[in-house]
Design a protein that fits this description.
The protein has about 650 residues and is α+β, with helices and mostly antiparallel strands. α4 (about 185-195) packs across α5 (about 200-210), α11 runs antiparallel to α20 and α14 (about 440-445) packs across α19 (about 560-575). Helix content is about 30%, strand content about 25%. It has three domains: about 25-140, Nuclear Transport Factor 2, Chain: A (Roll); about 155-320, Penicillin-binding protein 2a (Domain 2); about 340-405 and about 435-640, 3-Layer(aba) Sandwich (Beta-lactamase), CATH 3.40.710.10. Keywords: Membrane, Signal.
Length: about 650
């Protein structure tokens, strides 16, 4: 009997241990809560299981509940999971919701809701779904609705003095108001307005006819202050045609710094898709240039109201957010100099640019592209061989070998390097050949004299000298830019070509202006363009912040810079751009450049001029020019003569 009691006791203990072990092995509800939070964040709860209905059915209900929120979705996390102490099969997940409802990249609607959980027959946790899991006051048939309101004006892009460069300006929206068109004259009026506005009459007429009976069909938008091409009187003479006063974000003129500043208009499908809910159809947004790059800063954020709308049409506000104005973007541009530069380039048929920098500050004053650039950013992004303007870097490297501006160098009419013939430019003065001072070789741009330095100036030394002038050194400009490229290794004819700015050497007009500014100040200059910007995403290069910086000031010394300035002055007093000696004001220092390109014979040439005057460094570039002195020289002269003098 005692043995039987002992056996029963052992069996009872074993059974109790088995029951405890099974309970301990059951999964906790935490994983189910985390999976639900992940699913709600993406409006797809396919990874969760439910006490009633399928995940697909819940997804369909979610789609209805969120239809009024547009593309905006919450970030959902698990705040806590509490198991019911009286029921091992029950728990409650508390979910934390964070919504960015105005597209400013920060959560502005935060709340918590609860989701009951039940353990299923197989031990897995199931969600007891109801609309209140999404928001606690939601019931069957309700939906959340986001409404943007109180739209605010877009902030301005400012010049260096804090005055608007690009902002809201009065315009006329010219088009056909269909309710105002007399019966039977719709096609006639549309065709007449199209002719007046320079549009395709058939296409515009079809657009008008396809629009609704109450539509206003815009033909063109014209600055209110413009004299034509369409006058209000001309418009009003057409039955049903109207000129509606409005505002658009515009620069002073259509051409003013267009490639840099960009344009503003209705958000494209691509911008909306990439905006992560910040933009919706019909929104105004930056479409290109700084307007697009700094769109979020300039737009600010609209006011937003979130309501719960019931099936019977009743609406209850659950959250409101006041609009926040955008922040103006200040540039370093000088509007007078920008206008001057663009007027100087107005008649140049090929791609061209003028970049002006204030050496004492590194601030960029002009980013001008000629009409031949066809809207492309030649000034900042062009990649071209610099030709003899690069002899500023070669001369610096020669100075570092012990050569001075008075050292005698050999300037033969031509030179052969590893079987390749190099010559001076056609028309090179015979009097400046033979044994001449480096100053004279620089002033007249003797190719062969600089090629003769190939044994004393290595490619590595050349790259280092160029970097000390800022060529090839990236800076946080605040927008996309090409700062130049100088190979650290090259041999034979490739190294020889590098010494005269050919071969694999590439610069932009910006890069050459930076080199000039560095020579002017006696230390490497880091250029700046934006003073207070926060770029959207990764669209600024090399980084989205806008504090201009270079890794270090470089190794350019004041004495080296003074020697370069003396040689650049000789280019004006005795070299190829003596016309710049006529410019009033401080003495002008310069360096010309002609760079061959293409496979034609004779080859086509880029024309360059780099000039310094007072606290101004200017690079002029013409893509298809003659010599730097003949194509670039007159443009530089016109620009410098137009610079205001106090």
């Amino acid at each position: 009997m005692g043995k039987n009691r002992a056996t029963v006791s052992v069996l009872a203990a074993a059974l109790a241990f088995t029951l405890v072990s099974c309970s301990a092995d059951k999964p906790a509800p935490d994983d189910a809560a985390a999976e639900l939070a992940r699913g709600l964040s993406g409006a797809d709860v396919s990874g969760s299981a439910f006490t009633a209905g399928t995940a697909a059915e819940v997804n369909t209900e979610l789609e209805t509940l969120l239809a009024g929120m547009g593309p905006v979705r919450p970030a959902v996390t698990v705040a806590s999971v509490d198991e019911d102490p009286g029921d091992d099969d029950a728990a409650t997940a508390r979910l934390a919701y964070a919504w960015d409802v105005n597209g400013d990249s920060t959560p502005d609607w935060n709340y918590e809701s609860t989701a009951p959980l039940r353990r299923g027959d197989d031990g897995a946790w199931l969600v007891e779904w109801s609309p209140s899991v999404l928001f606690d006051s939601l019931q069957d048939g309700d939906k959340l609705v986001r409404t943007a309101n109180a739209l605010i004006p877009r902030a301005d892009i400012l010049d260096r003095n804090g005055k608007p460069l690009m902002g809201a300006r009065p315009v006329l929206r010219i088009g056909i108001s269909k309710p105002d068109v007399p019966e039977g004259l719709q096609a006639t009026s549309a065709a007449a307005l199209a002719e007046l506005a320079g549009l395709d009459p058939a296409a515009y007429t079809a657009q008008v006819e396809a629009s609704g009976p109450e539509a206003f069909v815009e033909a063109i938008v014209q600055r209110a202050e413009a004299e034509g091409p369409v006058t209000v009187a001309d418009v009003e003479a057409i039955p049903g045609a109207v000129a509606l006063p409005s505002e658009r974000v515009l620069a002073p003129t259509r051409e003013f710094a267009r490639a840099l500043l960009g344009t503003v208009g209705e958000a494209t499908a691509e911008l909306i898709e990439n905006s992560e809910g910040r933009l919706a159809p019909g929104d105004t947004a930056g479409l290109s240039g700084l307007q697009q790059q700094y769109d979020e800063q300039l737009r600010g954020s609209d006011g937003v109201e979130i309501t719960v709308e019931s099936a019977d049409g009743a609406s209850t506000s659950v959250m409101t957010l006041d609009p926040e104005p955008g922040t103006s973007l200040q540039t370093t541009l000088d509007p007078g100099l920008q206008t001057l530069a663009e007027s100087v380039l107005a008649d140049e048929p090929s791609a061209s640019a003028i970049v002006a920098i204030q050496p004492s500050t590194g601030e960029i004053l002009t980013v001008a592209n000629g009409p031949g650039s066809e809207g492309q950013q030649t000034a900042l992004l062009g990649q071209y061989p610099p030709g003899s303007t690069f002899k500023t870097a070669t001369a610096l490297a020669m100075l570092r070998t012990g050569t001075t501006e008075e050292t005698t160098v050999q300037c033969p009419a031509e030179l052969t390097v590893d079987g390749r013939r190099f010559a001076n430019v056609p028309g090179y003065p015979a009097a400046a050949t033979g044994d001449i001072p480096l100053r004279t070789a620089f002033a007249n741009s003797c190719n062969t004299a600089f090629l003769n330095a190939r044994d004393s100036v290595s490619q590595q030394n050349l790259a280092a000298a160029a970097a000390d002038l800022g060529i090839g050194v990236e800076a946080s400009l605040g927008t996309l830019a090409f700062f130049g490229s100088v190979p650290a290794a090259a041999e034979g004819t490739a190294h020889a070509a590098s010494l005269i700015g050919q071969g694999e050497i590439l610069v932009s007009p910006l890069a050459m202006a930076v080199a000039g500014a560095s020579i002017s100040t006696g230390e490497r200059v880091a250029p700046s363009l934006i003073r207070n910007g926060t770029a959207d995403g990764d669209s600024a290069a090399p980084s989205p912040d806008t504090t201009s910086s270079a890794a270090a000031p470089g190794n350019l010394t004041p004495a080296e810079a003074e020697s370069l300035r003396q040689m650049m002055r000789a280019v004006v007093t005795e070299g190829g751009v003596q016309m710049l000696g006529e410019v009033p004001g401080d003495p002008v220092l310069a360096k010309t450049g002609t760079a061959e390109f293409g496979s034609e014979y004779p080859p086509q040439t880029h024309a360059w001029v780099l000039a310094l005057q007072g606290d101004l460094a200017v690079a002029v570039f013409v893509e298809q020019g003659e010599r730097g002195s003949t194509s670039g020289g007159p443009l530089m002269k016109a620009f410098l003569e137009g610079v205001p003098r106090g």
